[in-house]
C-alpha cells in the first residue's frame, strides 16, 4: 500500500502490452509477480514463453537472436518471476527446472557468470529455486568413470549430512572420454571444468608515437619559438582513426596555430580541426597513414 509502489505500478501497467523488449518484459514479469498481480504476471509470462529459446530440457531468453550479454540476466529474472508466486504447481517447478538446466551450463568453474550484474541476479534466482526444491529426505550418488580400462573412477555421495558440501576430483585420463551416471532421489549439480595454459602473449610495441621539439632563441624579448611535433604510425592497419594531439604550452606563451592549416605538401588535409584555448592547443588529425619504416608526419606551431 506504499504510495511510491502504488504510483510506480500505475505507471508501468499501461506499457505491459507494448514493451517490445525482452529484458524489460522479464523485469516487468518479476515486478508484477512480487506485487501479486496474477493477471498481469500471467500476461507477461505468456509473452515471454512465446519468445523463449528452447533446447531440449533447457530454455532461456535473449535480447537478440544471436545472443547477448543480457541473456543470463533475462533468464534469471524470468526464473524469479516463475518462482515468486505461492503455491507453486508441478508445472511451475517443471518450467523453472528447464531454466535452471540452462543457467548452470553458463556458470564458470568458480560459480559465477560473465559479469558481476548477471552473477548477482543468477545466484539470487538459483538460491530461490534451491529453497523451493530443498528436502531433508533422500540421497543421490554420482559416478564418474573413465572409458580407459583401469582408468580413474570417482563416486560422489550426496546425502542429508553433506548436501551443502562442495566436492571435487581431478580427472587424470585427459584427453579422454568419461561417463557420468546419477542415481537417487535428490537434486544435484555436476560441472566439468577444463583448465589449460597458453603461451605468454607477445607484447606489441607502441604503434603510435608523438615526438615534440622546440627551436628558437627565447632570450630576446618577444621572440617566437617554433614547436615541431612528429606523429608516427607503424601499426598493422593502413592508417589510424582520428588522432587527437594535446599540446600544453609553457607558462607565458600563446600559440599561433595558423601554420597547421597551411602546411606544405600533403600534410594540411590531415589536420581536420585546431582548437587553441588558454595554454592548450588541440590538434585533430583525420588519420595518420602508415608509411615505410621511419616515415613521419611533421607539424609546426609558432609560440
Task: Output the keywords.
303 residues; alpha+beta; 3-stranded antiparallel β-sheet; 6 helices; 11 strands; 27% helix; 22% strand; elongated
How do the strands and helices of this protein lay out in sequence?
Blueprint (H helix, E strand, L loop, with lengths): L2 H10 L9 H13 L3 H14 L1 E3 L2 E3 L10 H13 L6 H14 L12 H18 L6 E7 L6 E6 L19 E7 L23 E8 L10 E8 L9 E6 L22 E7 L2 E6 L11 E6 L1
Antiparallel strand pairs: 1-2, 3-4, 3-5, 6-7, 7-11, 8-10, 9-10
Helix pairs in contact: 2-3, 2-4, 4-5, 4-6, 5-6
Describe this structure as you would to a colleague.
The protein is α+β, with helices and mostly antiparallel strands and about 300 residues long. The chain has six helices and eleven strands. A three-stranded antiparallel β-sheet has the order 4-3-5, with no helix packed on it. A hairpin with a 2-residue loop joins strand 9 and strand 10. It is elongated and about 95 Å long. The relative contact order is 0.08. The model is unreliable at about 260-265 (pLDDT under 50).
Amino acid at each position: 500500500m506504499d504510495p511510491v509502489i502504488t504510483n510506480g505500478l500505475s505507471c508501468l501497467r499501461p506499457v505491459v502490452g507494448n514493451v517490445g523488449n525482452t529484458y524489460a518484459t522479464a523485469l516487468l514479469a518479476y515486478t508484477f509477480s512480487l506485487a501479486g498481480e496474477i493477471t498481469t504476471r500471467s500476461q507477461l509470462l505468456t509473452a515471454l514463453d512465446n519468445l523463449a529459446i528452447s533446447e531440449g530440457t533447457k530454455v532461456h531468453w535473449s535480447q537478440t537472436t544471436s545472443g547477448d550479454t543480457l541473456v543470463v540476466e533475462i533468464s534469471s529474472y524470468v526464473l524469479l518471476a516463475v518462482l515468486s508466486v505461492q503455491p507453486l504447481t508441478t508445472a511451475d517447478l517443471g518450467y523453472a527446472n528447464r531454466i535452471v538446466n540452462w543457467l548452470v551450463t553458463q556458470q564458470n568453474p568458480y560459480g559465477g557468470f560473465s559479469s558481476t550484474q548477471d552473477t548477482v541476479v543468477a545466484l539470487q534466482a538459483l538460491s530461490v529455486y534451491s529453497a523451493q526444491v530443498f528436502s531433508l529426505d533422500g540421497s543421490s550418488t554420482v559416478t564418474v568413470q573413465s572409458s580407459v580400462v583401469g582408468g580413474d573412477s570417482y563416486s560422489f555421495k550426496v546425502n542429508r549430512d553433506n548436501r551443502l558440501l562442495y566436492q571435487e576430483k581431478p580427472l587424470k585420463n585427459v584427453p579422454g572420454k568419461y561417463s557420468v551416471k546419477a542415481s537417487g532421489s535428490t537434486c544435484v549439480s555436476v560441472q566439468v571444468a577444463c583448465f589449460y595454459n597458453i603461451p605468454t602473449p607477445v607484447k606489441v610495441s607502441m604503434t603510435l608515437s608523438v615526438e615534440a621539439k622546440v627551436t628558437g632563441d627565447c632570450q630576446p624579448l618577444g621572440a617566437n619559438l617554433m614547436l615541431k611535433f612528429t606523429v608516427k604510425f607503424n601499426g598493422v592497419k593502413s592508417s589510424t582513426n582520428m588522432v587527437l594531439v594535446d599540446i600544453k604550452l609553457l607558462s607565458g606563451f600563446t600559440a599561433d596555430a595558423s601554420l597547421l592549416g597551411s602546411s606544405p605538401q600533403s600534410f594540411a588535409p590531415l589536420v581536420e580541426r585546431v582548437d587553441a584555448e588558454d595554454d592548450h592547443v588541440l590538434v585533430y588529425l583525420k588519420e595518420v597513414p602508415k608509411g615505410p619504416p621511419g616515415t613521419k608526419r611533421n607539424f609546426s606551431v609558432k609560440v
